Amino acid sequence: MAESVTEDIIIDILSRLPVKSLMRFKCVSKRWRSLISDQHFAKLHLQRLILENIAPSQKIIKSNPLQTIDYEALDNGEVNDHVVVESHDLGRDEPWGLAGSCHGLVSLAVDDGLLVYNPATRESRRLPTSELVAEHEFFHGFGYNSATDDYKIVCGAFFKANDGSKECVSDILSLRSGSWRRVPCKDVPKVDGFGIYLNGALHWLVNHGSGNGIEQAIIPFGLAMETFEEAIPIPKVEAYTESGKIVFQIDVSEMILFNPEDGTYKNYPIEEDDNVESTIYVETLVSPYVGHEQ
Q1: Whole-number mean pLDDT of the chain?
Q2: Residue 38, SS3 per DSSP
Q3: β-bridge partners, 140
Q4: 10 Å Cβ neighbour count for 214?
Q5: Does the global pTM surpass 0.85?
Q6: What is the largest CA-CA distance in the chain?
Q7: Tell me, what DSSP letter sits at residue 77?
Q8: Span between the terminal Cα atoms of the chain, in Å
Q9: Do residues 133 and 182 lie in contact, with contact meaning Cβ atoms separated by under 8 Å?
Q10: Which residue, 92, 221, 88, 207, is CA-closest to 153?
Q11: Which of 28, 45, 92, 294 is positioned for an S-S bond with 32, CB 3.0–4.6 A?
Q12: What is the rounded CA–CA span in Å between residue 16 and residue 46?
């Protein structure tokens, strides 16, 4: 009984620590390595982050080249470029684009397919290619379905129908199954790029309405029912660092930290080889191998 209570206390303490500390603590003992690597512990750690304070664990990841940006570090006066910006070397799987992020996992577009990658643990998983990956007018997204405790990647494309209209075709891959399947996709407004995950749905910015009544709106795709839902108006939301500064990406090659109080800004020391895409992720222990014990 005493051993059980002791381990419960250890788990409670460890679940409150940042991922970088936990990765170091894997070396303490075989038991700690097994505990920290366990998917149930990863889920507990994620739940703690969401319920308490997720902000310190949030980072930006950008492509071309793949780099993590600790935007709070620059705001806190950190001058070491290697702390503010951290590079990721995926070898032959160097990504050319992003397909979204969810719960610390990032979906990356690589040659001949997709890669799900955890930048905090450096764990990655290659996924089979969707037939739609190489098509033009393409949209994609990555999110979580709590009903099945599973992560899904959505890939869609628009084709010209016989009557000249645009026809949507979409594929969905579940990380648990590891395979693609075609799903119905009707009456979809023109969406492109990668959708943003929030509360069980992916969201895209679209032009909604017709004639003089066209306005920008957000259209959700529910991951449980796997259908597009009714468009919603755009909320007026602004994002800040904890001290009130704002992170902007300026064109394809520059990212800055802007201080609205005095109009000053700092440049993030990022590199760029081509068009740069970026997304926010949170440092977690969630594994790309959901449902597949390693």
Answers
A1: 83
A2: coil
A3: 155, 194
A4: 10
A5: no
A6: 73
A7: T
A8: 29
A9: no
A10: 221
A11: 28
A12: 10
The helix/strand/coil state of 69 is strand
pLDDT digits (tens, 9 = 90+) for 208-248: 766 666 777 888 999 999 999 888 776 443 345 777 777 77
Rounded Cα distance between 68 and 61, Å, is 4
Cis peptide before 65 (omega within 30 of 0): yes
149-171, pLDDT tens digit by residue? Answer: 999 999 988 877 777 777 888 99
Could you tell me if 74 and 63 are in contact, meaning their C-beta atoms sit under 8 angstroms apart? Answer: no
Please say whether the beta carbons of 217 and 231 come within 8 A.
yes
Question: How is residue 214 written in tokens?
Answer: 């066209």
CA–CA dist 118, 185 (Å, integer): 30
Question: How would you label 23-37 residue by residue, b for 16+ Cβ within 10 Å and e otherwise?
Answer: eeeeeeeeeeeebbb
Burial class (CB in 10 A: 0-12, 13-18, 19+), 195: buried
**Beta bridge partners of residue 280, listed in sequence order:** 60
> 206: number of CA atoms within 13 Å, CB side?
22
Encoded amino acid at 285, one letter: L
Structure tokens at 59: 């980072």
Q: Is the pLDDT of residue 189 over 80?
A: no
Following CA atoms 221, 129, 134, 150 in sequence, which dihedral angle do they give, to the nearest 10 degrees? Answer: 10
